[in-house]
Amino acid sequence: MAPAHHDVVIIGAGIAGLRCAYQLVHEKGVKDVLVVEAQGRVGGRIMADTSFIPGMTIEVGAEFAHGANTSLTKFAEEQKWSLREIFTWAQGDGGPTDPAPDGGIGYYYLGDQKRILAFDDEDADFCKFNDAVDHLSEIEDVEAIPHNQSMMDYFKSWELSPSMMKLADAGYANTAGSNLDDISLRVTCKYERQWIDLEDEGDYRVVPTFMRIVDHFKTGITTQLNWPVQTIDYSSPDRVVITSKTGEQISCRRLVVTVPTSVFKDIEYVPCLSQTKADAVDSFGMRRAAKVLMHFTDSFWPANAHGVICSDCFLPEFWVNNTNGVGHLVENGDEQLATIYSNSSGETQYLVTGYAGSACADRLKSLDPQEIIEKFLDQLDDMFGTEEHPTPARSSFVKGKYFDWGDVEYIPPS
Question: Which of the following CATH numbers is that of domain 69-207+287-407: 3.40.390.30, 3.90.660.10, 2.60.40.10, 3.30.70.2740?
Answer without folding.
Answer: 3.90.660.10
